[in-house]
Amino acid sequence: MKSMADQKASRWKHPGGKLRRMGPSALSERELLAIILGSGTNGKSALKISDEILDTYANLRGLMGVPLKELMKIKGLKEVKATKIAAMYEASRRILKHIENDT
């Protein structure tokens, strides 16, 4: 059985645990994207898929407006995960629009 210290240390290895402990601003783009993806696939973690996405598109901004079919060319990104990314960007776009309208 793991000690409490070991359990806490292992939580740091997972982006969700890091978010809970340190807040969302402490996460890298890789970790944020892994949380959005939710899970990996057989033999490939959500973090590994995030690495491949960021290798392809440079950063989260580079993903803006990328068509679903283009996203799904990345191994491990099927329709559901690509849809989550597209929804994240649409939500972000709408938030920015509200902010612009408020100023």
Automatic annotation (TrEMBL):
Domain of life: Bacteria
Region (Disordered): 1-24
Domain named UPF0758: residues: 13-82
InterPro entries reported in the protein's UniProt record: RuvA_2-like, UPF0758, UPF0758_N
Pfam families, A to Z: UPF0758_N
Biased composition regions of type Basic residues, renumbered to the chain: 10-21
Full protein name: UPF0758 domain-containing protein
Organism: Candidatus Woesebacteria bacterium RIFCSPHIGHO2_01_FULL_44_21
